[in-house]
């Protein structure tokens, strides 16, 4: 067969090169082993610069998508006025925010008791602090601002004017006319309302949205610190009157990250069990190091661990930002390592150490070259897609 002849010629040409390479390695084992370990350990230092990208929109939205292009274009055309004239409907992106949803334990949230509890919650969130560049910072110090006050969505529900009309059962819906703020559309801040002739009768839930400035990079850094404090403090908040649900702009991204890390812990446990099983199953006396599968299996596992750490370390040192999907990489590397180790290193009828080493490298070249071509085609497709 013509195809078979072509395969044999290519296989022989590549295999002979790897066979010679295997002989060369076998003649200088300690030199290459020590050099490999030393280089990998040095590359591990790059992990000190490891950075992870966890934003769901960045990870799962193609960088060439029309939505990304339009968003960047709009952000470049219109100035960011979140520090002076913030309007939620004018945001060109998700922005920075935290939300709390309040549900009355007795059913209706539109009463003085629940509103007073919401005011306590409002004050409680405003008291959350962080330390930035040696200074204590509160929400009011970097909140999005409108009319020289913090722009909190839904705060119209906590005003004396709203409470006054609520007491008379005459709150207009969905627009509330405030003496100083003018008409305020508050429909999105009241959950499952009961309406009678455009008058708000009752509602079991209400929402507050705390918006933050985005006109300077330092506010984003502050928010990253604040949101962790926000989650911590909300976990501690207790009330006999209301139940509170809470989230921030990065909640979905963090949920995805936590799910992946949870899967990774299962993987680590499975990997540890597999390693222990290999040791128990293969640990038997006799035969040399190359003829004994225990040291071979151990070497394969160590090579996998070192290859993962050194590859991530090298790219981290170069400034590459990793996404959480990279957690799948160990599976690919283990598959490659196992595929190389499964070539029968301790082959029957091959007694000489040099021949065994060379034959292993020769046979592993098949899987190695196939993997190279697969990754090459994948990368070429990615390049064409980006262009």
The level of helicity is 40-55%
The tally of structural domains comes to 2
What gross morphology would you assign?
elongated
How many DSSP E strands? Answer: 15
Low-confidence stretches: 287-291, 331-351, 375-387
The largest pleated sheet is described as: 5 strands, antiparallel
Domain SSD: 263-334
GO cellular component, one term: membrane
Transmembrane segments: 30-50, 260-280, 300-323
Keywords: Membrane, Transmembrane, Transmembrane helix
Describe the SSE topology:
Elements (H helix, E strand, L loop, with lengths): L1 H26 L1 H16 L7 E2 L2 H5 L5 H12 L19 E8 L7 H15 L2 E4 L2 E4 H4 L2 E2 L2 E2 L1 E2 L6 H8 L7 E4 L3 E4 L4 E2 L2 E3 L2 E4 L2 E7 L5 H20 L5 E7 L2 H32 L10 H25 L4 E2 L5 H13 L11 H34 L1
Parallel strand pairs: 1-15
Antiparallel strand pairs: 2-13, 2-14, 3-4, 5-6, 7-13, 8-9, 10-13, 11-12
What does this structure look like?
The protein has twelve helices and 15 strands. It has helices spanning 2-27, 29-44, 56-60, 66-77, 112-126, 139-142, 160-167, 217-236, 251-282, 293-317, 329-341, 353-386; strands at residues 52-53, 97-104, 129-132, 135-138, 145-146, 149-150, 152-153, 175-178, 182-185, 190-191, 194-196, 199-202, 205-211, 242-248, 322-323. The two termini are 40 Å apart. The radius of gyration is 31 Å and the shape is elongated. The strands form six sheets. Strands 2, 7, 10, 13 and 14 form a five-stranded antiparallel sheet that branches. It has two domains: 2-55 and 254-386, no CATH class; 81-249, no CATH class. With 387 residues, the chain is of the alpha+beta class.
């Amino acid at each position: 067969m013509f195809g078979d002849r072509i395969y044999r010629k290519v296989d022989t040409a590549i295999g002979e090169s790897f066979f010679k390479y295997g002989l060369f390695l076998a003649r200088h084992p300690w030199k290459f082993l020590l050099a490999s370990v030393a280089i990998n350990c040095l590359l591990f230092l790059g992990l000190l610069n490891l950075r992870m990208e966890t934003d769901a929109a960045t990870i799962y939205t193609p960088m060439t998508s029309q939505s990304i292009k339009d968003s960047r274009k709009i952000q470049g055309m219109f100035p960011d006025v979140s520090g002076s004239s913030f309007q939620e409907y004018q945001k060109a992106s998700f922005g920075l925010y935290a939300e709390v949803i309040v549900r009355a334990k007795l059913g209706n949230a539109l009463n003085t008791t629940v509103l007073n509890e919401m005011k306590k919650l409002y004050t409680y969130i405003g008291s959350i602090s962080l330390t930035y560049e040696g200074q204590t910072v509160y929400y009011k110090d970097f909140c999005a601002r409108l009319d020289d006050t913090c722009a909190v969505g839904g705060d119209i529900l906590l005003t004396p004017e709203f409470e006054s009309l609520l007491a008379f059962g005459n709150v207009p819906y969905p627009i509330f006319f405030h003496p100083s703020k003018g008409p305020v559309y508050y429909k999105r801040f009241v959950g499952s309302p009961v309406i009678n002739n455009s008058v708000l009768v009752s509602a079991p839930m209400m929402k507050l949205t705390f918006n933050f400035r985005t006109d300077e990079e330092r506010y984003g850094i502050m928010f990253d610190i604040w949101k962790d404090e926000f989650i911590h403090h909300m976990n501690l908040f207790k009330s006999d009157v209301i139940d509170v649900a809470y989230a921030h702009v990065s909640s979905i991204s963090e949920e995805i990250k936590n799910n992946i890390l949870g899967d990774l812990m299962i993987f680590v446990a499975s990997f540890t069990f597999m390693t222990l099983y290999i040791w128990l199953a293969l640990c038997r006396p006799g035969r040399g190091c190359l003829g004994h599968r225990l040291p071979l299996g151990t070497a394969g596992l160590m090579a996998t661990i070192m290859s993962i750490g050194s590859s991530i370390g090298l790219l981290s040192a170069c400034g590459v930002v990793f996404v959480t999907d990279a957690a799948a990489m160990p599976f690919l590397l283990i598959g490659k390592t196992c595929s190389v180790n499964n070539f029968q290193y301790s082959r029957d009828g091959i007694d000489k150490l040099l021949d065994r080493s060379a034959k292993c490298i020769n046979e592993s070249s098949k899987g190695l070259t196939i993997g190279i071509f697969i990754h090459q085609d994948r990368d070429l497709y990615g390049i064409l897609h980006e262009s």
